[in-house]
Design brief:
Blueprint lengths: L1 E6 L7 H14 L6 E6 L2 H14 L3 H23 L2 E3 L8 E5 L2 H6 L11 H12 L2 E6 L5 E2 L2 E2 L2 E3 L3 H4 L8 H7 L4 E5 L3 H8 L7 E4 L3
Parallel strand pairs: 1-2, 1-5, 2-4, 3-4, 5-9, 8-10
Antiparallel strand pairs: 6-7, 9-10
Helix pairs in contact: 1-8, 2-3, 5-7
């Protein structure tokens, strides 16, 4: 079983603790999974791209690739803080946990729309599809909220009815079109990531695209 963890850039301060929890879990359950691939968010690096894109009127196409390059910057940050190995292709996966440096792989497999509706969230889901992997989005909030209450489970097709969400705008559509599910969990509670890895009940939001 392969698993894709999309780690949000908002978790920079806590990244070492998060990864150490995942490593400990993997080391104690070696026969239950093949590999865990971390897809980095963009974080403060992508925020800079957004600001520059607006200020200098950069095209969606150029902004798309600069933003993906910012994901790679965050990948180097994660690698530096955790000592994890990195990969830049999906053709050979290692057992255990690795960090994807996504730029070159996406340049070689340019299948997603270009624009700010498609961010590292959708890219993480797309990578999970490529690997036939489970997909977990790890962020700094508990999940999707409706009228200030946490939504524990929701169909991907219903997310746009809520309005503002902690996912990018395209990810729910991608999950629905590809019949994929997704956990959203708060990385500041690493035990929730482990519960999601175990496919156990967890405080968070479970998005159902495979309905």
């Amino acid at each position: 079983m392969n698993i894709v963890l999309k780690l949000g850039g908002s978790l920079m301060d806590n990244i070492t603790e998060i990864v150490n929890h995942v490593i400990e879990y993997i080391n104690t359950t070696p026969d239950k999974m093949k590999s865990v691939v971390i897809v980095p968010g963009g974080g403060i690096f992508a925020d800079c791209v957004r600001d520059i894109s607006k200020k200098y009127h950069i095209s969606n196409d150029a902004s798309h690739w600069i933003a993906i390059a910012s994901m790679e910057q965050y990948a180097y940050y994660i690698i530096d803080k955790t000592g994890l190995e990195s990969i830049d292709t999906l053709s050979e996966l290692y057992s255990g946990i690795t960090v994807l440096k996504p730029y070159q792989y996406l340049k070689n497999n340019d299948e997603l729309p270009h624009g700010w509706n498609v961010t590292s969230d959708t890219i993480g889901a797309w990578i999970a599809k490529k690997l036939d992997a489970s997909f977990i989005k790890v962020t700094d909030v508990d999940g999707i909220f409706k009228e200030q209450s946490l939504v524990s489970e929701i169909n991907a097709s219903d997310i746009d009815k809520i309005g503002q969400s902690c996912t990018d705008k395209y990810m729910p559509e991608f999950l629905k079109d590809n019949r994929m599910n997704c956990y959203i969990v708060n990385g500041y509670h690493p035990e929730r990531i482990i519960a999601a890895l175990r496919n156990k009940p967890v405080t968070g939001t479970y998005i159902k695209g495979n309905i």
